[in-house]
Amino acid sequence: MTQTELAEKMSDKSVHMSSGNVFRDLDLPDAEESHVKVQLAVALIKLIEERKLTRSKAAKLLRIDQARLSALKHYRLDEFSIVQLLRLASVLQHDVLITLRPFLT
To answer: Are 69 and 55 in contact (CB under 8 A)?
Structure first.
């Protein structure tokens, strides 16, 4: 979806209840995958910040280059798979708990 299409979609002034997934609410492709990636990225960035790791130390620990670390920190997640993000959580010595629940309606 282009930025123009997104702007047109958002120009609708009516208010809608959120589903809990902004990507689904905006009818974007791969909404579920994008939502999971962002949730993982938020958690990973929080862990990195809590450890007060420099970019260099974080990249070395995660075994990624600083450009990929920057992409993660700026939520440019197209170049990451969910599996890659799960691996980063593992490197930071964290498990990921997956919960299935019905969609919010």
So the answer is: yes
> 0.90 exceeded by the pTM?
no
Q: What HEC string does 15-59 produce?
A: CCCCCCCHHHHCCCCCHHHHHHHHHHHHHHHHHHHHCCCCHHHHH
Domains, the chain: 33-95 (1.10.260.40)
Whole-number Å distance between alpha carbons of 60 and 65? 7
Q: pLDDT per position in the chain (105 positions), as tens? A: 677 776 776 666 677 777 888 888 888 889 889 999 999 999 999 999 999 999 999 999 999 999 999 999 999 999 999 999 999 999 999 999 988 888 766
